[in-house]
Amino acid sequence: MANTTKTKAVRGTGAREASAQATRDNILKAATRIFARYGYDGGSIEKISSLAKSHDRMIYYYFGSKEQLFIAVLEGIYQRMDEAEAKAPVRADPIEALTALIRFKVAYYRRHPEFVTLLNTENLHKGRHVAKSAKAREFSSNALDLIADILRRGEAQGCFRPGLRPRDVYLLIVSTSYFFTSNRFTLSAFLGEPLDGPGALEEWADFVVDCVLRALRAQD
Length: 220
Fold this sequence. Notes:
This protein has 220 residues and is mainly alpha-helical. The chain has ten helices and no strands. Helix 5 packs antiparallel against helix 7 and helix 5 (94-111) runs parallel beside helix 8 (166-182).
């Protein structure tokens, strides 16, 4: 009888934990959508709880404050990119590996507009929220380690010139990838050509790959 009671208690605890995690995840998904649409200032707790079909008090219970919830949202978008990048096939050839990484970045920003809008919002706030996140720095370390490994292999094989900083290569890739998507509407109007049209993203990815490889290749 004692064993049966203990088993029921464990199962009950597991069910409660699963329910709590589901509630937390639901709030986080709603917050991501609300902050992406209204920004940090316009993304009220009331809007988030309404979309999540929850209660304001539950948001404070799980996250403590609106700022902590926003930080969790930022950590979530970084984590999802990090996980997607980690699932990409590993390529032994360093040029192929770098090419695949560039194409991944260019495509990812376009497929995930919430990533772009949330980072734009955080930049308006001068990065003061994400600066409080230790997890965000873990994800950036993963990205830099990946590039560092590609550069090491490329230098060893004579493909890339020595002395390249992973941080610089990372900034070159993400700036050209991010800017094209984040500013495509204003740039389309300014340049008088649709940067959001069919094939435009693939054409830009080809150009970025060519530019980055030219900048990194070892001298003949």
